[in-house]
Write a structure and sequence with these properties.
Family: Belongs to the cytochrome P450 family.
CATH architecture: Orthogonal Bundle
Distance between the termini: 42 Å
Structural class: alpha+beta
Pfam family, one: p450
Keywords: Heme, Iron, Metal-binding, Monooxygenase, Oxidoreductase
Strand order of the largest sheet: 1-2-6-5-3
Largest sheet: 5 strands, mixed
Protein name: Cytochrome P450
Number of strands: 10
Low-confidence stretches: none
Number of helices: 14
GO molecular function, one term: steroid hydroxylase activity
Length: about 375
Amino acid sequence: MLDQLTGHEDPHPIYERLRAQGPLTRDNGMWLTTSHALANKVLRDRRFGVRFADGGYPAGGSLLPDSFLELDPPDHTRLRRLAMPAFSPKKIDEYRARVEKVADALLDRDEFDLIADFAAPLPISVISDLLGIPDSDTAEFADYGALVAASFDSGVTPEMSEAHDKVLALFDRLIAERRRTPGDDVISSLVAAEAERKLTAQEMLGTLVLLLVAGFETTVNLIGNATRALLDHPAQWRLFKANPDLAPAVVEETLRWAPPVQLTSRIAHERVDAIGKDEVVTLLLAAANRDPEVYPEPHKFDVMRVHQPEHLAFSSGIHYCLGATLARMEGDVALRALARRMPDLRQTGPVTFRDSVVIRGMRSMPVSRS
């Protein structure tokens, strides 16, 4: 049934047909679950990981072989720990004023594309600053992020490989500069860790590419999906405009109702009940986030909803999204800015969606301030 999914149509009717088959079912020879409880359990269970017993990775054509996203402990633990300081709540708070300034500047216009002109440039600016990437080098990052997202569905294409090579060349140049003149940024801290032999040069590159993509790819779609949900639900939009401090609640409900990452997978390191060793389990995070056993009226977009337990938009367990705090802050700032600067915001043309089943978001959404 999963082969019927597209990046353009509402996936939830298919998710509901799968849900009717029970919490754990088989689809084209693959295990999958729509259950919040079971997905959360698998994500937290150390008997599951992201690699096969022989160390192989299921994507086959992955471009990030040395990023902690695609590693199990102990390597995952070692590399993630090196990147964590840059994404601490204290560090993220320091960036809030900059994000507010960028958001305001981006909204100095009347008609624009919500994605290309606002949702994408905002997090790109922030993650570039955090990584210490010069503004002159940020132009191609949005296209690169979209290509990486597409690779989750279609594998690595020649276009993807070419863009990847350009980004690696950029990081090679910046790493060489930081070796000569360290600064107060993530690249400098990883260069120092490499000098102390806490990670290899290849692992440093993999980590930087992951942070670059993860640092803005999820947020672009969070901002886009939230804005579309609000405009499609006028009562919720009015409620938010009257109560801008509901911004964090809007972010959480969007992450539950329209999560940027729709699904992920785990591999059993040993037999776990019916699941055999090295068998893959696909966790339908978007379906789990609308599990009726967890959320009353799960298909209703309700910014006043109580999120107990937490949605799985940022995964769970040891692979819980490192950039979750950053994404939440950027979503909060972006939505407040839209409500304050553009209370009469409206959609002026058809939405187009990205060609990705794993990463669900819009390619384009034309809007006007009145």
